[in-house]
Amino acid sequence: MKAMLSIKPEYVDRILKGEKTYEFRRRIFKRRDVDTIVIYATSPRSAVVAEATIGGILEETPERIWKRTRKHGGIDEDGFMSYFDGSAVAYAIKLSRVTRFPEPIPLSDYAPEVKAPPQSFIYIQ
User: Fold this and answer.
1) What is the rounded distance in angstroms from the CA atom of residue 8 to the CA atom of residue 1?
2) Phi-psi region of 30 (alpha: psi -120 to 50; beta: other; left: phi over 0)
3) Residues 47-84: pLDDT tens digits?
4) Bridge partners of residue 52, in order along the sequence
5) What is the residue range of 13's domain?
6) Contact residues for 13 (Cβ-Cβ < 8 A; gap 6+)
7) H or E stretch including 25?
8) Triad 53, 87, 38: Cα angle to 5°
9) Closest CA to 118 of 1, 6, 3
10) pLDDT tens digits, one per residue of 6-35
11) What is the CATH number of the domain that holds 9?
């Protein structure tokens, strides 16, 4: 099963360069059979640009997640803590085997059943 995640272009670039190997989320998919992340770059790109295999998911307090992933998160501590402000739990998705598509793919071409970019994530068959 795949899950499409909307990710800001600055973080997408870091993922594609190998500088960011963890994607952080305040909530995570309930389905445990998700093994692939589809990376949707938000505006101004507005396209599907890559896929990544999930290498594991960490679930801990934001402080503990930061300590474990800070060197590979592609974000500074202030930005990380601001994102998780008010959250008791943080999730870090390990992105393994990132495959960049040769060309960005419009959402309507990649997944015609998806009518709008996901706010957080959406399951893809």
Assistant:
1) 23
2) alpha
3) 999 999 999 999 999 999 999 999 999 999 999 999 99
4) 37
5) 2-124
6) none
7) strand 22-25
8) 20
9) 6
10) 999 999 999 999 999 999 999 999 999 999
11) 2.30.130.30
The C-alpha atoms of residue 35 and residue 14 are separated, in whole angstroms, by 21
Question: Residue 62 and residue 80: Cα distance in Å, rounded?
Answer: 8
The SS3 assignment for 81 reads helix
Domain count for the chain? 1
Spatial CA neighbour of 40 closest among 19, 18, 17, 11: 11
Residue-wise burial string across 59-82, b where 16 or more C-beta atoms lie within 10 A, e elsewhere: eeebeebbeebeeebbbeeeebee
Token pair in block for residue 52: 């990544």
Q: State whether residue 73 is helix, strand or coil.
A: coil
SS3 54: strand
Match 């893809």 to its residue by tokens: 124
Residue type, 89: V
Q: For the whole model, what pTM was predicted?
A: 0.94
For 81, list phi and psi in degrees, rounded to 5.
-65, -35
